[in-house]
Design goal:
Strand content: under 5%
Largest sheet: none
Number of helices: 13
Radius of gyration: 24 Å
Order of helices and strands: HHHHHHHHHHHHH
Helix content: over 70%
Structural class: mainly alpha
Amino acid sequence: MSLRPGRTARAGQYAALLCYLAFLGFPLLWLLSTAFKPARELGSLHPTWIPADPTLDNFRQAFDEQPLLRAAANSLTAALCAALIAVLIATPMAYVMARHRGRLSAAATGWVVVSQAFPFVLVIIPLFLVLKNLRLINSLGGLILVYVVWSLPFALWMLAGYVRAVPPELEEAAAVDGAGRVRILVSVTAPLLAPGIVATALFAFITAWNEFFFALVLLKTPEKQTLPVVLTHFLGAEGVADLGPLAAAAFLATLPSLVLFAVIQRRLTGGLTAGAVKS
């Protein structure tokens, strides 16, 4: 009798989790269904989950109408470079902020909080003027710089939390054994930060891959536009969407993030310091 409340609570938790997963998965499943529907099913007054006559015409039409591969290459370049640079900059900064408490740490924390409060529309005009003076308008280099600056505060905050979770006793033990500061960071601290670095890089990548507003304002020529901007070209002059090709292109645009997460999800859930300290 005493186990029944615990089982009931656990069943309720699983039910809530299933509802949440269904809520998250519904848009993707509906997008996938729409991408394979022919035009006559898309215009039906009684939509169905599973296409009665699935077709690949929407995918062929999407590639024929818009340069999706070129746009995807631009997005991939910007996202990978932004994620790599943000992690390389944030990792040593996070270590200093976490290990050396003081005014610098407080100022960095305040910068993280304040920077996340500014909406895109508030910073786009001064940002545009700065990049114009640097001759970085309409270039992937300028867009990468914007993505790095925009994702750096949150990346710093994430990595600082992982650094604080690493026991300082490990570094102290390595110092007693004669290891220098650089050797400690490379051989002791960095391996334990691997899950945090992977999670931070994934966050920066997805943020840059899905970003639309900065890319729309800063990139003018079609050859340099990213995938989210190109997806808007499936909207007609009167705002009517070419639903089939749009759904097909949007589904393809979600695949890199899903594949990347599936590949590295074990690193995200791995223990940070599992087995580091012997009892």
